[in-house]
Amino acid sequence: MERLSVGLEVYWTCSWAFGFKLFEVFDPPGGLLKRDGEIPSQKFTRFHLESLQSTAVEDGSDWIVLIIQFIIVHICSWWGRWYIWEPLAKNCMRRPTPRNVQKFSAIATANLFHSLSAFFAWRMLYDRDWLWERAEWSIVVDEVEPDVKFFYLLYAARYISDAISLLFEITKEDSWAFAVHHIASVGLVLGSAASGYVRIGCVFMFFLDWVDIVLTAAKLLKYSSKKRNDIFQILADRLFELFAVSFIITRNGVLNYVAYVCLVDFENTPILKTQVVVLVMLMTYWLVLILKHAIHQLFGDGSIDDLRESDDEEEDEEGESVDKKRR
Fold it and tell me: What percent of the chain is modeled with pLDDT above 90?
């Protein structure tokens, strides 16, 4: 019970610091933050991801924070799917079949979470000088700002929720890749936190989440399209094009550079390096799918779809043709 009390106190303190940094209007109890948003150095905090069997009360307290965040994120995810996105899908989709409605709700949830994550990353990390200096990434830090700590654990909680949600979503061609990606991302975040390589984890969070907003927005527009060449489909095509370019720049350019830094500058981190290599391999796999589909569309009807939805779209079109024959 004492460790639970410590974990709840850590959650409360770090969440207030996170809210203050996010909106710069809150001041946590006890004067943890100054009114101008500066965090006193003596108020920095450590990650406590030790085993819960440890005798020290504070050891393992961050697991309690992570569990609370996971519960909140997971409830918000599925509540939004059931009570917001699915009803919306039934009203705006051309063919609101149960399968399509479920896909729409999953994509809308992903778009919301990626947008919030990108906004959080910008507010928490943009003004950190070390974010823009390669030499600073490999420095092991024992203490971090409480707002960064809360965001760090929240990022892991989101991917844990996403990994579990995959079990209840429609299986796609690359569902296995998503599962590996989510597990590797959680391992990278928690592993870097436990080992003190928090800065490189923040670099991944800051530079790599933005492109998913474009992809999920394009998918939502595609599902909202009533016919092939309406405004929704045209906007979706342009966003898919933007996504393809952004993906190559961020996921195959920036990520590869950050991975190179990890492999060259970091010492005695075989697990961390392995997780980074796994992410690079996944991004390369997705790049091949994107290029393959882009070439296919170039010689097709000119509309650009996400390859991961191609099999489902063919099923939808077949169902639509059956409906027309019945009429």
Answer: 55
Instruction: Give tens-digit pLDDT for 166-181.
Output: 999 888 888 899 999 9
Instruction: State residue 319's pLDDT score.
Output: 47
Q: Are 82 and 106 in contact (CB under 8 A)?
A: no
Distance CA 104, CA 302 (A): 23
> How many Å apart are CA 87 and CA 96, to the nearest integer?
10
Is pLDDT above 80 for 236?
Answer: yes
